[in-house]
Every structure is written in structure tokens, then in C-alpha cells.
Design a protein that fits this description.
Number of strands: 17
Shape: globular
Radius of gyration: 23 Å
Strand order of the largest sheet: 3-5-4-8-10-9-16-17-14-12-13
Structural class: alpha+beta
Length: 598
């Protein structure tokens, strides 16, 4: 057992665990006690961690303190490991959907999605959003209609966009740090080509001429893919577009540049010592969240109606909630990972950030992966949002102890949002118990960390540590300390959680929770050069994110209000595998009701 050991947890068989509201399962709130560390203290901590013997002792104590050893590494778990979060196709009935033909192109799927949209409710719902340089937060349909009528052109829009990016990034100015790379010549070339298509009356789709930002974890020519570092772009050459980017390009979208991100995705704040720290447009002194920080901020600011992110541990949904936009993480396997940095094979995938649910639907329809053989490919249902109001018998599973483990403003706002859905749609909240939430968070942490260091090993072995940011060096040191036993036990916990969630989905359509435990917190000057170690806020931010990644489940977040400081609050819906259409329906209903919440 060793000097620092404590008794390990002995798990009972998953089938014996009570998932009802009266369950005696004990809810563990994250046991995080470490104070925030930044600046010189981060550097000292890194030097200690990287000392051969002392560092190993410190890491062991840290893992003991946050219960990784007790709940994961040394635990006695009866289930075998489950190594991936993939799901076989299940024909789960969904209400008010349009089944698309399997052989449609990306542009044809976009046309199908546009046909599912309701009247122009979306334009009024985006009205309170902060924007850069007076830009109204236009939707995809706003752009398509303006291009069609001749009110404006993609060239004019791109010109204004580039001016806004330049202004927001200027030294001594707002310093929003939206992008790592943005090539004005490439943006204008795309805009000119789109303008010509519109002038000929032959746009490729509703996305033709619409600006889309791409997280710098996804390949997008002509840019290098840095992963938020200053070295990876040269070590791993980008040779073309990722699959999801190629589909957007085929629809005529203007790829606006590579959005900023937390270095290697190894953090929740979006603070990046190499490329600047993306700021929250609601309040530029606050974090945008991570790791898809720039993608969330650029949509929030109204510069792009849609952006791509990558979600390995809430990295799309978390910043979406902090910036008050929609964040979508589909079912594992629904989108292709081709051309995405392989930082976390079994938990990460591309995701969508958008100003409205309607825009999220259009982008989703464009980038779904239809390249698999027909007998393996899941059916693609698109939600007919014009008929969302007629949906009935929707059941929302709520685990009260988990739901309420958030800041008071978030808890109150999200509870009010649920009551609004009940009042206006007659939907039912079902009380359940989701066991071992903290155990799942720690197992996910071991998994994503182990996969990250393994995927980067061929680069890290040849790299000077000084090339890596200080906070990322801490993360990599911790990731590299996980044993094979810890990894295998994490996959056994994955198996348990898959069982628990499948059982819950027998009685409910979705699981509902806040998206984050805290709203966006303040950026502090001492973190800009070194990053920061803020595990208390970090644990609060990821509290509700893990099932979507660890279990490969689809999830969506939509803004439902603000805290007392005016910062956005997001509500999350987690669905059955392949139920993206139902999630988009529910999120649209929530979006339509948001103005009633206050």
C-alpha cells in the first residue's frame, strides 16, 4: 500500500447500483484543495515536478490528494474494461424529424437543413449579443438573404471582418486574441470567389460566403495546425483540409482562419502564453474558457456565425456556455476525426459553436460523416424545428445533487429554465441518481492525459521543454505519471458508466444539467506569460462535461440567462447515442423560451 496510501474503493457490480431518486449512492463533489498558482510559482512548481525523484513523490501525493489512487488506480472494480465509446446504430424513434437520403452531398444536406427551419425567431434571440466594430450578430440565413438581395456581398462582409479582427488584436487595444492565424489574402480570395457565384445566381449552398472560424486543432489549408503551441505546426505538417473543413469548403463557406485555443487543449481557461489569451466578449477581463476559446469568442463577438472546435473534455460546450453561444458535441463517430490532431483518440471529436440553434443545425448538416459504407452508417435525422412546439412526452432526467453542485446564480437560473420548459411544453422532469460522477471525472482525466502524452510522444521526446508553456508542462508531467493499471481501471469505470447511462435512458429522453459550475472568472495579469494552475475553477468548469466525451454521447448547451454580473449561463442536454435531432429540438425550445426566463 505504501506510506501515502489510503484504502482503495471496492465497487459493487454496476447492476446492483440503485439509479432511482432515493438511492443511497454517495455524491462526491471534486476534492480539490490546491490554491491557484501562476507566474513565478508555476515555474518553481514545474522545476520541482521535473526533478527525477522529488517530482515523482510530489505527483504521487497530488494524485492521492485528489483521490485518483483511491477511486481509480488502486480500486477493486468488477467490470472488464471498455476501451472505446463507440455505439452501434440503434433506430431510436425521434419526433418531428426529416430522414435524409444517404447519398446527399454536404451542400444538399445544408439545403435539407434550411428546409427544417422555422420563421425568423432566431434574429430576435441573438439581439443582446456583444459584437465587435458595430457588427450585428447575423445568422447564416441573414447572410444568405443579404447576398441574394444584393444588400451586401461576401467581399464587403470579409472586408469588415478583417478590419474588426485587426482592430480587436491591435497592441494597446482590446487584445481579444481571437485567432492564432488569419491570412487576409486567403480570406479575400475566398470572398471574391463567393461573390462571383452569388452574382451569377449560383451559390453552392446557404453557407456560401459565410465566415467560419476553425480551431487550431483542425487542419485547414493554407495554415499550419499548431494545437496552440509554437512548435507543433512545424513538427507535423498540414497537407490539406480536415474532413469537416473540406465539407464546409464544398458548401462555399469562407474559412476565416485558425482560432485560438488553450495550448494542447490542456486547460479550461483559454489562457495561452504563446498566442495571447482569448477574452470573453461579454467582459474582456474574463476568460473565454477552453480549450476552444477563440472559437467561442469569435462567435460571441459576431465576427462569425459558426466556428469549429474540438471537444475532448467539454472543450466546445464549456467555452460556449461561458460566452453565451450554442455548443454541440455529436455522438462519437457522427463526425470524422480525419485531419484533427490526435490528442485524445477515444474521447475527442470535432464540435460546433454557433450563435443560434438554427445555425448549429445548418453547420451540423454540412459536416456529418457520410463516408462510411451504408451498412455501417447511422441514419441522419434532421429536426423539423418549425414543429418543435408540438413535441410531447419529453422526459428530462435530473440528478439533483449533481445539478445543484454549482454557483447559486447558475443553480437558480437553470432550475428556472427547467420549470419554463415544463410550463410551456408540458415536459416532465424525472428524478434519477447518476452514480460515481467524480469517479468518472477522474477516470476521464487519466484517459485523456494518457492518450495525449502517447500521441505526442514522438514529438516530446525530441523537444526542448522550454518550447512548451509552463502550465502545459505541469499537465504533461501529470499525464505521463499515470500507470497502465490506472488506465485500465479507468476503462472499467467507463464500462460501468455506459451501463448506468443506458439504464437511465430507458426512462428519459435526455439528461439535463448546468453546463458549468461557475461562470467566466477574471483573467489575472500574472497568468499571461506562464498560464495558471487553478484546479478549483477547473474542476467546476468540467463538472458537467465528462459523460459526453467519456461515453461518446451527444450533448448540446444553450444560454438560459446571466449571473448577477451579466455573464452567460448555459444549460446542457445529454442524449442517447445518435439522438442529435432530439437534442436540437430541445435546445431550440429552450432558446425560444429563454426570453421568458429573465
Amino acid at each position: 500500500m505504501g506510506l501515502f496510501s489510503s484504502p482503495a474503493k471496492v465497487y459493487k457490480p454496476a447492476a446492483d447500483v440503485d439509479l432511482g431518486p432515493g438511492s443511497d449512492e454517495f455524491y462526491i463533489s471534486p476534492n480539490v484543495k490546491a490554491p491557484r498558482v501562476a507566474g513565478l510559482l508555476v515555474k518553481i512548481f514545474v522545476w520541482i515536478l521535473e526533478m527525477p525523484i522529488v517530482g515523482q513523490i510530489v505527483l504521487y501525493i497530488l494524485k492521492k490528494d485528489n483521490l485518483i489512487n483511491k477511486l481509480v488506480s488502486d480500486a477493486d472494480i468488477p467490470e472488464p474494461p471498455l476501451f472505446t465509446a463507440t455505439h452501434s446504430w440503434e433506430d431510436t424513434p425521434e419526433q418531428n424529424v426529416r430522414l435524409t437520403k444517404p447519398d446527399l452531398s454536404a451542400a444538399e444536406r445544408v439545403q435539407e437543413a434550411v428546409g427544417c427551419l422555422p420563421a425568423r425567431l432566431e434574429a430576435t434571440l441573438a439581439a443582446d449579443a456583444p459584437t465587435q466594430q458595430g457588427l450585428k450578430r447575423w445568422t447564416i440565413r441573414d447572410f444568405a438573404d443579404a447576398y441574394s438581395s444584393g444588400e451586401t456581398t461576401p467581399v464587403q462582409v470579409a472586408t469588415r471582418f478583417l478590419a474588426a479582427v485587426k482592430e480587436s488584436s491591435a497592441p494597446g487595444g482590446l487584445n481579444m486574441a481571437f485567432f492564432i492565424s488569419c491570412d487576409p489574402e486567403d480570406v479575400m480570395r475566398q470572398a471574391e470567389e463567393s461573390t462571383l457565384r452569388h452574382q451569377r445566381g449560383a451559390p453552392l449552398s446557404a453557407l456560401d460566403g459565410v465566415l467560419v472560424a476553425v480551431k487550431d486543432e483542425i487542419d485547414c489549408a493554407p495554415y499550419p495546425t499548431t494545437g496552440g503551441t509554437r512548435w507543433l505546426g512545424a513538427a507535423r505538417r498540414c497537407v490539406g483540409d480536415a474532413a469537416c473543413v473540406a465539407q464546409l469548403r464544398a458548401c462555399g463557406a469562407i474559412l476565416a482562419g485558425k482560432a485560438n485555443m488553450h495550448e494542447l487543449g490542456a486547460g479550461t481557461s483559454g489562457i495561452n502564453p504563446h498566442h495571447g489569451s482569448a477574452r470573453n466578449p461579454y467582459n474582456a477581463s474574463k476568460i473565454a474558457g477552453g480549450s476552444s476559446s477563440g472559437s467561442a469568442a469569435v462567435v460571441c463577438a459576431g465576427l462569425c456565425p459558426v466556428a469549429l472546435g474540438v471537444d475532448g473534455g467539454g472543450s466546445v460546450r464549456m467555452p460556449a456556455a461561458l460566452c453565451g453561444v450554442v455548443g454541440v458535441k455529436p455522438t462519437a463517430g457522427r463526425l470524422s476525426n480525419a485531419g484533427v490532431l490526435p490528442l485524445n483518440w477515444t474521447v475527442g471529436m470535432p464540435g460546433i459553436l454557433a450563435g443560434t440553434v438554427e445555425d448549429a443545425l445548418i453547420a451540423y448538416s454540412a459536416i456529418v460523416d457520410q463516408s462510411q459504407p451504408s451498412y455501417l452508417r447511422p441514419e441522419l435525422n434532421l429536426p423539423q424545428l418549425e414543429s418543435t412546439l408540438s413535441m410531447n412526452n419529453i422526459k428530462l432526467a435530473k440528478y439533483a445533487k449533481w445539478f445543484n453542485d454549482s454557483a447559486e446564480d447558475i443553480r437558480s437560473c437553470c432550475d428556472k429554465a427547467l420549470k419554463t420548459l415544463q410550463a410551456h411544453y408540458g415536459w416532465q422532469t424525472v428524478d434519477v441518481t447518476i452514480p460515481e460522477i467524480e469517479e468518472m471525472r477522474l477516470a476521464h482525466y487519466v484517459t485523456i492525459g494518457s492518450e495525449c502524452t502517447t500521441s505526442l510522444a514522438k514529438y516530446l521526446d525530441k523537444l526542448k521543454r522550454s518550447e512548451i508553456g509552463w502550465d502545459a508542462r505541469v499537465a504533461l508531467s501529470v499525464y505521463g505519471s499515470f500507470s497502465s493499471r490506472a488506465y485500465l481501471n479507468s476503462q472499467r469505470i467507463r464500462n460501468r458508466q455506459m451501463y448506468f447511462h443506458k439504464e437511465i435512458f430507458k426512462t428519459a429522453d435526455v439528461i439535463v444539467s448546468p453546463m458549468t459550475g461557475v461562470t467566466a472568472y477574471t483573467l489575472q495579469d500574472d497568468a499571461f506569460d506562464t498560464g495558471e494552475l487553478d484546479y478549483i475553477n477547473g474542476a467546476a468548469l468540467v463538472r458537467y462535461s465528462i459523460a459526453g466525451n467519456f461515453l461518446g454521447l451527444p450533448a448540446i448547451t444553450v444560454m438560459v440567462g446571466h449571473d448577477k454580473g451579466g455573464l452567460p449561463i448555459g444549460l446542457q442536454f445529454i442524449g442517447r447515442p445518435w439522438s442529435e435531432a432530439t437534442l436540437l429540438h430541445i435546445a431550440f425550445a429552450m432558446q425560444a423560451s429563454a426570453c421568458r426566463i429573465g
